[in-house]
Every structure is written in C-alpha cells, then in structure tokens.
Amino acid sequence: MTSNCYIIDSSSLIELNRHNPIDVFPSVWKNMESLVNKSLLIAPKEVLNEIKKKDDQLAKWAKKQNNLFKDPTPKQIEILKDILKNYPALVKLDRKYNADAWVIALAIEMASGSQKTLLPIKRIVVTEEKLRGNKIKIPLVCQKYSIETIDIIDMFRIEGWKF
Question: Model pTM?
C-alpha cells in the first residue's frame, strides 16, 4: 500500500474555488484541510503569494492553512536553478510571482528525500495545466523529472471523495 502526498499548484486551488466556492461547497474544502493537516497536501510558499494577489475567499482560506505552504529549502533552491537552466521558459517574466518551478522543485526534493514512514509515499503534482506537445508547462517538466501530474478532480478520485 502507498500513501500519496500531493504538491498542489495555484491553478488547481484557483479553479477549485472558481467552480466550488468555499461558501457553497464547504465539505470539499474540509476534505482539503484534512489532507493539509495530515501533511499530505502541500505547496511552496510561492503558491500562497500567487493566491494572495486576489483578495478573495481563497486568499482568506489559504492564509489560515499554516501546514500547507512550505518555505524554500537550500536543496529546493539548487533544484530550482537546475530546472530553470533546463527550462527557462517556465518563468513568465511579465508576472510578479512564478510558482510553477517552485512546485516542481518541492516535488523533486520530496521524491528524492529519505522517507521516515512505514508506508512508501508517492509524490504527485496537482495542476490544471495539461501536457500540450513541447509547451514548457508543469506536466512536461515533471515528466522529464519522473514526477507524476494529475488534476484536482483526479486527486478527488484517488482519495475516494464523493460530494
């Protein structure tokens, strides 16, 4: 048996909030919080910065999720430099925040880290970006680093959630 740890991108949280607003679908967000509290749903701090650009329900929710957002580590910064050397197009120069490379760096760091758990943990990136040819997006770069990517609905399915 394997336990999954999801590294979530801003796009998945933003889309989830767009189609399942927190005030209308509280059970969806309670399930998300449950994963956060078990450290099975994480994101780099840069995702929080992207979400906070808009002062909405999602930003308010995100600011309360102390266990969700992880500060960068020296190892992540090394990984990030490697990613950007190979895929500079991952950073959009017209944007103030660029979480994509950080999401991938966190996933790679976690996948390569030594596990101190009884069950093996599978690291999966959750993003709404899709693999489209050779477009430099999260799924393509994750594929190159052997990291699985899924969207938020697939995460719900894997977790067995029904609403």
Answer: 0.92
